[in-house]
């Protein structure tokens, strides 16, 4: 499995405002870049915090890219994956529509009622007692044939994926805004590392509109 984390952050490293409301950090050129990355992926992964904040659809927007996928015997859209310990994904969430297969990764903490509600429109994967055990959940996804995986946030999930050693590549658009706020989500939240810090090797720097896209490989992968 190859895991790429992608995000758009402000010049001060925030993914959204302290109200957790989506901010236009990047513009159309970056959304096109993200669309191409989705089209190259077998799955797009988000945390339930992102589903609750943004209600994303996570589909490929460009019809030409969807057609190319069909021509190579792939579904028009990549699978969608939500990491959601207790099954808080609302049953009317956009990612649960029939545009693509959706996996909801739960822990043992998810109730029978939430499982039943989600099982109608998603494939359920259970790993971990309280939180989702990401190593086990991703191993199950790989068994389902998901090899090229893209993660679209948010900061809690991204930190945990680095912590679990699951990230191969990081692509970040850094935009020309200051969002500020000590409680605003950043690229990697969670508990934070204190003794050992994942290291990155810079692969490319590309100017895009009034910002920059940095591509990093995770060192020693
Ligand atoms: N700018 C961007 O590119 C971008 C992209 C995505 C999200 N966002 C923003 O990020 C915010 C949401 O991020 P967030 O950090 O609150 O939530 P998140 O999307 O990272 O989801 C975190 C949640 O996932 C669940 N979870 C289960 N197992 C977990 C594990 N092992 N590790 C971590 N989480 C686990 C928990 O319920 C946890 O609260 C929103 O404000 C959204 O707008 C921005
Ligand atoms: N590239 C990018 N620039 C931004 O300025 C910004 N705020 C996001 N945020 C990512 C976020 O996850 C979006 O919610 C999804 O890109 C929505 O995906 P859909 O259109 O619903 O498929 N992404």
TrEMBL record:
| Positions of the Bacterial bifunctional deaminase-reductase C-terminal domain | 2-214
Which keywords accompany this UniProt record?
A: NADP, Oxidoreductase, Riboflavin biosynthesis
* InterPro entries named in the record: DHFR-like_dom_sf, Rib_reduct_arc, RibD_C, RibDG_C, Riboflavin_Biosynth_HTPR
User: Is the keyword NADP in the record?
Assistant: yes
Report the EC code(s) recorded for this entry: 1.1.1.302
Database matches in Gene3D superfamilies: Dihydrofolate Reductase, subunit A
Q: Which GO terms describe its biological process?
A: riboflavin biosynthetic process
Q: Give the Basic and acidic residues compositional bias ranges.
A: 62-74
The pathway noted for it is: Cofactor biosynthesis; riboflavin biosynthesis
Give the UniProt family note: Belongs to the HTP reductase family.
The record's section on NCBIfam families has: rib_reduct_arch (TIGR01508), ribD_Cterm (TIGR00227)
What protein name applies here?
A: 2,5-diamino-6-(ribosylamino)-4(3H)-pyrimidinone 5'-phosphate reductase
The scientific name of the source species is: Natrinema limicola JCM 13563
Show the taxonomic lineage: Archaea, Methanobacteriati, Methanobacteriota, Stenosarchaea group, Halobacteria
């Amino acid at each position: 499995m190859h895991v790429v984390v992608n995000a758009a952050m402000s010049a001060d490293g925030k993914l959204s405002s302290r109200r957790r409301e989506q901010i236009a950090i990047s513009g159309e050129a970056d959304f096109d870049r993200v669309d191409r990355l989705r089209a190259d992926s077998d799955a797009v992964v988000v945390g339930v915090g992102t589903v609750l904040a943004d209600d994303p659809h996570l589909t490929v927007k460009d019809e030409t890219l969807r057609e190319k996928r069909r021509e190579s015997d792939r579904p028009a859209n990549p699978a969608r994956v939500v990491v959601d310990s207790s099954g808080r994904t609302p049953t009317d969430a956009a990612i649960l529509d029939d545009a693509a297969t959706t996996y909801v990764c739960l822990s043992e903490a998810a109730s029978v009622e939430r499982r039943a509600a989600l099982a109608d429109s998603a494939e359920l994967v259970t790993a971990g007692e309280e939180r989702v055990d990401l190593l086990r959940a991703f191993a199950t996804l790989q068994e389902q044939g998901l090899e090229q995986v893209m993660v679209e946030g948010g900061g809690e999930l991204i930190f945990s994926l680095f912590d679990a050693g699951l990230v191969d590549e990081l692509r970040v658009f850094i935009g020309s805004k200051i969002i500020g706020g000590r409680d605003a989500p950043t690229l990697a939240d969670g508990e934070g590392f204190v003794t050992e810090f994942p290291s990155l090797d810079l692969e490319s720097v590309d100017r895009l509109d009034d910002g920059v896209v940095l591509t990093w490989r995770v060192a020693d992968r």
